[in-house]
Amino acid sequence: MGLRAYVARRILQLIVTFWAFFTLLFVLFRMMPGDPTSMFIMDGMTPEQREQRIAELGLDQPLYVQYVEYARQLLTGDFGQSFIYRDPVIDIIVVRFMNTIVLMGTALVIAYLIGITFGAIMGWWRDSRFERGGIVVTLIARSSPEFWVGIVLLSVFAFWLGWFPSSGMRTTGGELGGGFVARYGSADFLRHLFLPALTGAIVYLATPTLLMRSTMLDVLNADFIEIKKAEGLPERTVLYKHAARNSILPIVTVMAIATGAAMGGSVVIETVFNWPGMGREMVNAVNNNDYPLAMAAFFLMGSVVIIMNFIADLTYVYLDPRVEYE
Amino acid sequence: MSTERTSPIDSATGAVGDGLDYVRTKLEVFEGDRLGQIGLAILVTFLLIGIFARPYTIEFLDLTIPGLTPHDPGERAVGGRLESPSADHPLGTTDMGRDVLSQLIAGTRVTLIVGSLAAFMAVFIGTNVGLVSAYFGGWVDDVLMRITDIVYGVPFLPFAIVLVAILGSSLVNIIVAIVLILWRSTARVIRSQVLSHKQRPYVESAQAIGASHTRIMYRHILPNVLPLTFLYAAFAVGWAVIAEASLSFLGFGDPNMLSWGEMIYNVYTANAIREAWWWVFPPGIAIMLFVMSVFFIGRTLEEVVNPELRHQK
Amino acid sequence: MVEDNTSRRRVLKGAGVAGATGLVTSFAGCLGDDDPDVEGADELDEEVPEIHLVAPTAGTNPFRNELASIIADNWEEIGFEVDLEELEFGAHVDKAVVQQDFDASLLGWGGTPERIDPHTFIYDMHHSNNTAEGGRNTPGYENDEYDELAELQVTQVDEDERQQTVYDAQEIIAEDQPRTYIANEGGYHPYASARVTDVDPTLGEGLNSFWNMISATPTDDDTVRFGYPSEIISLNPMQDLATPDRQFVRLIYDQLYRIDEDGFPSPWLATDDPEIEDDGMTYTLEIRDGVTFHDGEDLTVEDVEFTYEMYADSPTYSDLVDVIDEIDTSGNEITFHLEEQYAPFTANVLGQVYIFPEHIWGDVDPDDLVDFEDENWTGSGPFEFRDWERQAELQLEAFDDHFETPNADTFIRIPGSDTSTLVNSLESGQIDMVGAVPQPTAVDRVRDDDELDLADFDAVGYAMVEYNTRREPLDDRHARRALSYGVPKEEYVEFIRDGMGTVTHTTISEHNEFWHNPDVEEFYEDLEAAQQELADGGYGWDDDGRLHYGADQ
């Protein structure tokens, strides 16, 4: 099978995957107990108003009708209207999604930068005290749940030392909105970002570190290193070029998965640090039975991972011609 | 798929039996491996604490083995509100006057149950999916791997929250939620491993003498990928425990089973993190130690799987 | 007896995990299961069905969650079998209030200002008209004698007469116990006394009250930052709103009357109390002069008339103004002709309808009202809308042309993921007030902090156990009364809530002094009385202490 046919087939599969994913979500959310009026009943919504509202939302329709309607909407790129807020879902989600991406993206970038460097050094100095200590530290970091790391950092740096704010994304009262740079570039924002991003970075640090270390070991053991050395190339150059080349594939694959984990894990960090992100919004939406909002949030998060996986697959094929298009 | 089948339970027990033999012969890898030894020691300690946490009554002997917990972990007002550690309450008390040490000890059990059950089930599913997928290839592979893709697309915690909301928050449902997500990584890894084994001569000769698909998969190929399975099981234990703790921390834990995650959730909702260090740190450190122990063991197993790592020593 | 096994949950908590409660062991201990002190019926019929008790999760309400496990213990102690189910708020309301699939349900009724008038608590919650799915009479309580009183009080414009009716009604439900009225959950709202002065916590709402928000005065800058544990849904007053939304909508939009600090409607956009004609069906009032909307347009009597017509046409709030038959205007005066007598008209209609600018909302189709986006949310209230980013902050600023200019120039509302994070933010100086009751530990910490203080307030609403009177054995008054004796009201207030709140025995809070009947029958935790009540009702116990119907019942 040629490359082009392979890519075509993968794209087809991608579409089927998306459809199945969407259906799964739809079924899952319709099984949830309660409906979006629950939260208003204790605040005075009468039974008549409730029925009217349910009909207005189309929730009295047979499930398959709702399914077809929602699928049709989604195909036109419309996520519908939030049941609770009554605003277009997309308006609510875009801002929240950006907040989460900025937070988790920063955490991942820090984790991978440090991890790759650290891992490479550990592999380079194998069997040293540094390596052994490094492994222990890495494993300990990996053993800590996000909320635990968050609570410890919060206790030390926010409550005890008072160096960083304990919650939120910026000091309140300022100008809202503004461009990307205005929102995410200010010193105030960075100060708020520090602890939650550090929490994420600590938790996600282990994977790239250990991966980079073992890749390094593989490269150091490989026969061709000896050959290249014999050819008179400086050891460092050989190492750098080959270690880098050999580590791209596994790192890319792992990063795709890590992004997914980070998306899901953001719920915890956002809760601990009161970060106005997607994860919290999603949990709220689930609790409020706001199906369109919750589904869109799940769908977006899932899409990021599915597409990342897809890209990782293609990169794999592209970078490593030995892989058969199976 | 194959029309010949042996009972899946037979093959499963076979697999476990093989696995035990395997572990016995390979237990020697822990010799000289400091981290592995530490991990084992911690794990065994937790195991013992978990088993003897609460009193047992053996009826026909009319004997009661006392539990390790000094107090009933759920009982209110055994001490004052938020007392710091004392001789009576070595780890202090909670906001409702419950004994923290007793809660910590009782929580070990939940951790062990979640860790072992979830990991076993996840790896069981993952190994089978990977095996079948790689062995048969073609559309079977396509379908199974796309399912795996979808599962990768499902963000774990939010998914678990929804599932628990649907099914109710019990320990069983939490384990189900964890398993439904956790099998994916094992499936992928086993698949790629089996793919390479499929090409090897021993599989071809088995096929030549007319062995059934099931037999080839479970008798011939499986033993070769088992070490990897065990490695993933060790990691799965760790992830499962972290997952349960995170769910409990978000308030979706089993209200009738006190776990370490739930303890931290309780401190957090009681807004006592600042003052009650004796209530915050023990469960957090316990989670860390437990997960660390299985990761240390996992690392030792990794050297079994990848002997090259060992030869470097 | 058919039971859905999958939905059953063990109350192992009672047997092993939770154990006997510390404070009740003294007399719970003498009621051994095998040996009831009270003699029940001699000949037993079948077992009394299991009680399915629905309660909030610890995350939804830690106090009530704790209480539920004690209640379950006590009920088992007196011979019932209890199946305790813990649910999130939405699922709980759906199961208990909408599906009515429960035997007993531990919930709370909020005490918003419009509920200070007794109508909601007397009529809506206990009249047999309101037993439909989602109706407020969740227990399905039906008592003809009571219904008559509940209907009578609506027509009594004379307050003293109405008070007597409301008193009588409270006596009846106290005897029938369709609900166990547990406690008015007052408490503390923390604030930073170093940064804000003149806080004004009011009955039922504490720092969430309207009066607090216009009175709070920042000390060093001009901003008050207010934290609340959830985000509001919308500022559109025509949407389905929950209590936290109304608390901000009413800052931006004015009503003709506002409920004052003592719980009575007082003139706001109106110049004086309404003139009510003797038939009790005609209300006339005058509109204040010189009031403008935030965009500078005058607020006129036409705007008021338009508003009431808009409400009548709206799908969400037409119920509210249903009772109005006709509206006349003349000069600055407006007259409401009612279809029937409706005593709470001033408090519950004139005090709840927000006045809209006709020049903005005039052309909106009734069906589009809920979705209408007035980007500036132009009202006439003491604060005007500045900006809003959901889950981050809502910014309001003082409307200087208002007749009651607020003391803070800028008022910011900050939603938190929970009360704990908000208290943390308060302590670290990121917010100035919290509109939620913290846990006792945090209360102690705030009390010890020089920069912080607590604003205490009493509650109008209450926590309660509702009994589904459509089902056995809860259709029997004796069973309900016995269960009520199993609810540890004092332990709930004194221990679990660490003294926050007051025990109650009736539907009207003691803090709502005018309407509260102090002489109703009281139910304190008393397991022996519970067993006596059951014995009187003809029940009996088997050798295991399990409750049975008596053969003569």
UniProtKB/TrEMBL annotation, chain A:
<dbReference type="Pfam" id="PF19300">
    <property type="entry name" value="BPD_transp_1_N"/>
</dbReference>
<keyword id="KW-0812">Transmembrane</keyword>
<keyword id="KW-0813">Transport</keyword>
<dbReference type="InterPro" id="IPR000515">
    <property type="entry name" value="MetI-like"/>
</dbReference>
<dbReference type="InterPro" id="IPR035906">
    <property type="entry name" value="MetI-like_sf"/>
</dbReference>
<dbReference type="InterPro" id="IPR045621">
    <property type="entry name" value="BPD_transp_1_N"/>
</dbReference>
<dbReference type="GO" id="GO:0005886">
    <property type="term" value="C:plasma membrane"/>
</dbReference>
<feature type="transmembrane region" description="Helical">
    <location>
        <begin position="101"/>
        <end position="125"/>
    </location>
</feature>
<feature type="domain" description="ABC transmembrane type-1">
    <location>
        <begin position="97"/>
        <end position="312"/>
    </location>
</feature>
<dbReference type="Pfam" id="PF00528">
    <property type="entry name" value="BPD_transp_1"/>
</dbReference>
<feature type="transmembrane region" description="Helical">
    <location>
        <begin position="146"/>
        <end position="164"/>
    </location>
</feature>
<feature type="transmembrane region" description="Helical">
    <location>
        <begin position="248"/>
        <end position="273"/>
    </location>
</feature>
<dbReference type="GO" id="GO:0055085">
    <property type="term" value="P:transmembrane transport"/>
</dbReference>
<feature type="transmembrane region" description="Helical">
    <location>
        <begin position="293"/>
        <end position="319"/>
    </location>
</feature>
<keyword id="KW-1003">Cell membrane</keyword>
UniProtKB/TrEMBL annotation, chain B:
<dbReference type="InterPro" id="IPR000515">
    <property type="entry name" value="MetI-like"/>
</dbReference>
<feature type="transmembrane region" description="Helical">
    <location>
        <begin position="35"/>
        <end position="53"/>
    </location>
</feature>
<keyword id="KW-1003">Cell membrane</keyword>
<dbReference type="InterPro" id="IPR035906">
    <property type="entry name" value="MetI-like_sf"/>
</dbReference>
<feature type="domain" description="ABC transmembrane type-1">
    <location>
        <begin position="108"/>
        <end position="298"/>
    </location>
</feature>
<keyword id="KW-1133">Transmembrane helix</keyword>
<feature type="transmembrane region" description="Helical">
    <location>
        <begin position="156"/>
        <end position="183"/>
    </location>
</feature>
<protein>
    <submittedName>
        <fullName>ABC transporter permease</fullName>
    </submittedName>
</protein>
<dbReference type="InterPro" id="IPR050366">
    <property type="entry name" value="BP-dependent_transpt_permease"/>
</dbReference>
<feature type="transmembrane region" description="Helical">
    <location>
        <begin position="276"/>
        <end position="297"/>
    </location>
</feature>
<dbReference type="GO" id="GO:0005886">
    <property type="term" value="C:plasma membrane"/>
</dbReference>
<keyword id="KW-0813">Transport</keyword>
<feature type="transmembrane region" description="Helical">
    <location>
        <begin position="110"/>
        <end position="136"/>
    </location>
</feature>
<keyword id="KW-0472">Membrane</keyword>
<dbReference type="GO" id="GO:0055085">
    <property type="term" value="P:transmembrane transport"/>
</dbReference>
UniProtKB/TrEMBL annotation, chain C:
<dbReference type="GO" id="GO:1904680">
    <property type="term" value="F:peptide transmembrane transporter activity"/>
</dbReference>
<dbReference type="Pfam" id="PF00496">
    <property type="entry name" value="SBP_bac_5"/>
</dbReference>
<dbReference type="InterPro" id="IPR006311">
    <property type="entry name" value="TAT_signal"/>
</dbReference>
<dbReference type="GO" id="GO:0015833">
    <property type="term" value="P:peptide transport"/>
</dbReference>
<keyword id="KW-0732">Signal</keyword>
<protein>
    <submittedName>
        <fullName>ABC transporter substrate-binding protein</fullName>
    </submittedName>
</protein>
<keyword id="KW-0813">Transport</keyword>
<dbReference type="InterPro" id="IPR000914">
    <property type="entry name" value="SBP_5_dom"/>
</dbReference>
<feature type="domain" description="Solute-binding protein family 5">
    <location>
        <begin position="265"/>
        <end position="545"/>
    </location>
</feature>
<comment type="similarity">
    <text>Belongs to the bacterial solute-binding protein 5 family.</text>
</comment>
<feature type="domain" description="Solute-binding protein family 5">
    <location>
        <begin position="52"/>
        <end position="131"/>
    </location>
</feature>
<dbReference type="InterPro" id="IPR039424">
    <property type="entry name" value="SBP_5"/>
</dbReference>
